[in-house]
Design a protein that fits this description.
With about 100 residues, the chain is mainly alpha-helical. The protein has one domain. Helices cover about 50% and strands about 10% of the residues. The chain has five helices and four strands; from the N terminus they run αββααβααβ. It is globular and about 40 Å long. It starts with 10 loop residues before the first helix and ends with a strand.
Length: about 100
Amino acid sequence: MVAQDVVLGEELTGLVAAIRSRPLHVVVLAPTPDAVAAREEARGKQAYDRWTVDALDHALREETPRLGLWLDSSRLSVEETVEEILRRGDEARIG
């Protein structure tokens, strides 16, 4: 099973604790704010404004516990991101 969402701060700890199946792998995609802004601009629709990108990045880097694999996907394609997650899967394992 794969669950995908934006989970920031201590909510990540709570989510990990609530999932009882093991092994559990946690992967946090953490591109830079500039990469998020560039991707947003290329989308042709607006989900964030610059303030929101910076605020989300602050919550991610300053308030979220370092659980699992944190991957800077700023310069990776989707395919490269998947390959990196598969290559480094042991780092993502929780319990």
